[in-house]
Amino acid sequence: MIEVSPIAIVGTGLLGGSIGLGLRAVGYAGTIIGVGRRQSTLDKALSHGCVDEVSLDLADAVGRSRLVILATPLGRFAPLLEQIAASDHEQLVVTDVGSTKARVMADARRLLPQPRRFVGSHPMAGSERHGPEHAEADLFDHRPCIVVAEQDTDAPAIEMVSQLWSTLGMRVLRMTAEEHDRKVAAISHLPHALAVLLVELAEEAEALGVASSGFADTTRIAASDPDVWADIFIHNPGGVVEAIDGYMDRLHRFRDVVASGQRERIIDVLARAKHVRDGWASQNP
Amino acid sequence: MIEVSPIAIVGTGLLGGSIGLGLRAVGYAGTIIGVGRRQSTLDKALSHGCVDEVSLDLADAVGRSRLVILATPLGRFAPLLEQIAASDHEQLVVTDVGSTKARVMADARRLLPQPRRFVGSHPMAGSERHGPEHAEADLFDHRPCIVVAEQDTDAPAIEMVSQLWSTLGMRVLRMTAEEHDRKVAAISHLPHALAVLLVELAEEAEALGVASSGFADTTRIAASDPDVWADIFIHNPGGVVEAIDGYMDRLHRFRDVVASGQRERIIDVLARAKHVRDGWASQNP
Q: Chain A contact for B244, CB < 8 A?
């Protein structure tokens, strides 16, 4: 159980709001400060019980807090880190929930006076919805959270941030920023692109009228916030392009397997994927 | 409400079983005969209330029935149509639930003595699970069902089959077999291939350990029965290859948009897809 207090959550949308609700649900006894730019969003977060108090004044909240969590879209991180730098103090640890890590770590190193107290995080949980009204106390429960630190990152800072996520029920995994960006491109950024392009193709084929539950599942993430996802693609072009290239090779091969009409070759591909997917699902209920 | 009786369902798995449960749920008063090759599956269908009686004897069931629904995997259709041909009678209408239509219609024309009483169907509903124990009475409710007939198909047969699906709550759409195979490739067969290849890529990238709910959604259909889907790819190579080719063009373009790092171009693609997906979802709750 994490005990430091107060914790400031900058950005009280779906993710930030769910962190607050989740901490409260497991009995966190400290103070949670919601920080944002819009009073209306903060009021919603407060009325949904996501935070204890709200503030439009980032400098004040940072000055009073032990842990600051950046939970805004990635595109806001750099200006926020600059503001946090101006209110930095020796007791402060900063983390984030961003979906890319190499550029976030580089920004923290460049912009913070003590980047040794910055630890990158990527809790692997989310939804195509947004806003504190969709926050859920168990959003993070049983999901993986990737924690990224540099060689010289303070050990107590890593410990505090890891404890935050394990308090929320997450399985904490340590890796480098580069490993994160490559792996997450494969299981999140590429799938997002695939869903978006599938919607595009279905519309041009005038096939939306016959689409059903399978299409709903495979394209659900295409309903996500375009601004949030544009930031992600901007932040991880290398990982995404590498994943797309690898995927196009596979798609080309599968095209030829289908064109061959050889049942055994088709079965091989499908059975292998089912085996892997079933194994994954049994460990990620 | 469909009133003809008995109705024979050949193949009492998830789809066949759900047809029986659904008919019963909306008050169908006739007799439902479950036909299969394995007594154990038939017994499960009977004990789950999917059918009124069961039979291992297709010829006998066809001889007594007014409507026969083929609900086995596609690969079984040709031998079943041959057997049905031997027991054909003037009161008989035959339909199916197959995921491809051009080859099914051609098989029916070739194998049945009176193909004018065969109407192709594709109820757009399903699940990655199988077996009558996973059948659901409302599986078809509010989903689209594509009905395919030839120029010379008997009008009363088309009417009977359309009524079957509307009795189950489906939105019946008429189209040609070619139009079906092209559109369904875009919204079902291609998405299936994409999900399968995504699982393959994620495994090779050693990224399954960080995969979460988004990955679960986009790859759920990859857990489907490989035999069933091999038949589908074998039956619709033209539609699938055309869809893959169109998709690869889009993927290549998107790769270049990401590599360009131009935020406006990325936003354009994402916002357009969200708009279309949201519109579709609002009409397909």
A: yes
**Cα distance from N-terminal residue to C-terminal residue, chain B:** 24
- Angular region, A171: left φ>0, alpha ψ -120 to 50, beta rest: beta
What burial letters (b/e) apply to B217-252, b meaning 16+ CB within 10 Å? bbbbbbbbbbebbbbbbbbbbebbbbbbebbbebbe
Residue A205: predicted pLDDT: 96
A39-95, pLDDT tens digit by residue? 999 999 999 999 999 999 999 999 999 999 999 999 999 999 999 999 999 999 999
Smallest CA–CA distance from B75 into chain A, residue: A263
Q: What mean pLDDT comes out for the span B248-258?
A: 98
Strand ranges for A167-266 from DSSP E? 171-174
Contact status, residue B28 vs residue B167, Cβ threshold 8 Å: yes
**Which structural domain, as residue segments, surrounds residue A113?**
7-175
Domain boundary among B116, B144, B175: B175
User: Is position A1 within any domain?
Assistant: no
- Summarised one tens digit per residue, pLDDT across range A136-179 is 999 999 999 999 999 999 999 999 999 999 999 999 999 999 99
Q: Does B83 lie in the same domain as B38? A: yes
Residue type, A50: C
Mean of the per-residue pLDDT values of chain A: 96
Which residues of chain A make contact with B248, given a CB cutoff of 8 A? 248, 251-252, 255
Q: Is A205 in contact with B243 (Cβ distance < 8 A)? A: yes
pTM of the predicted model as reported, rounded to 2 decimal places: 0.91
Q: What SS3 state is found at B26? A: coil
Structure tokens at B267: 């936003």
Please report, for the domain that includes residue B56, its CATH number.
Answer: 3.40.50.720
Cα–Cα distance measured from residue B109 to residue B101, given in angstroms and rounded to the nearest whole number: 12
Co-location of B139 and B265 in the same domain: no
Decide: A258 and B254 in contact? Cβ < 8 Å: no
Residues B167 and B46 in one domain: yes
Q: Does B266 touch chain A (CB under 8 A)?
A: yes
* Pair B103, B61 in one domain: yes
Note whether A82 contacts B: Cβ–Cβ < 8 A.
Answer: no
ipTM for the complex?
0.91
Same structural domain, A97 and A191: no
Whether residue B119 is found in the same domain as residue B224: no
* Same-domain status, B157 and B268: no
Angle between helices A237-260 and B237-260 (to 10 degrees): 170
Nearest residue of chain A to residue B278 (CA atoms): A223
Query: Which positions in chain B touch A184 (Cβ < 8 Å)?
Result: 207, 210
Residue to substitute from B196, B224, B234, interface A, most A β-carbons within 10 A: B196
